[in-house]
Amino acid sequence: xxxxxxxxxxxxNKTLAEAEALAKALVKELADVTDxxxxxxxxxxxxxxxxxxxxxxxxxxxxxxxxxxxxxxxxGEVSPLMLKDIGCQAVIIxxxxxxxxxxxxxxxxxxxxxxALETGLQVILCVGETLDQRESGEMLEVLTxxxxxxxxxxxxxxxxxxxxxxxxxxxxxxxxxxxxxxxQEAHSxxxxxxxxxxxxxxxxxxxxxxxxxxxxxxxDGLMAQDDxxxxxVGGASLNAEDFSRIVRFxxxxx
Length: 254
Ligand code: PEP
Description:
Number of helices: 12
Order of helices and strands: EHEHEHEHHEHHHEHHEHEH
Shape: globular
Radius of gyration: 17 Å
Oligomer: single chain
Largest sheet: 8 strands, parallel, barrel
Number of strands: 8
Structural class: alpha/beta
Strand content: 5-15%
Strand order of the largest sheet: 1-2-3-4-5-6-7-8
Bound molecules: phosphoenolpyruvate
Distance between the termini: 12 Å
């Protein structure tokens, strides 16, 4: 009922030549995939070239960030309109690296979410607790603030073009994946929050991705969980073979 979605966040990696090579390899490996939605998110400078390479493939394009204004005096920023113009269908918003390194708040993230949706981009909204927050028992409070803050003022209709990614910060780039049970517990909690904010249909239809050291050898177990609808993949999305195996997760266990 919820189509699985596997998204690759390339972060600050790949020159133009390297991005072209990876995009070409993915188009070749994933040409026949129809039952899983696939998104890749290269750096801004590679978006235009990658858009051309993946144009006739099942792979869609996302940016890793945007600014919540269309045009204006915002030096160094890129707007949702410009992302759409260059061929993006989606944008990642609120990644923990931006929350931590660049001080992005839930309020600022919400402005970006609204602008991106208004522009017609699909939004991947990232949420997740740090290790300290988990260990001090604040996890549910943090997730509640991030989900409520990020989704403030949205309509159920807008929610149909938004995906939530649960990414426990302690599992990102560390090789430490949340256990299947830990991930399922957080996803089920987030789905409950969406139901409280909107309605049962909206929460049932909302896709929630897991992110945090997803690899070919742990994706099957994660995807077998009831409330895990896909993955946001960092490190393993930089390798065509690994990312393709993740896209082709073992559906028999689902
Ligand atoms: C990410 O960047 O969103 C991520 C989950 O990274 P990694 O897979 O490397 O942990």
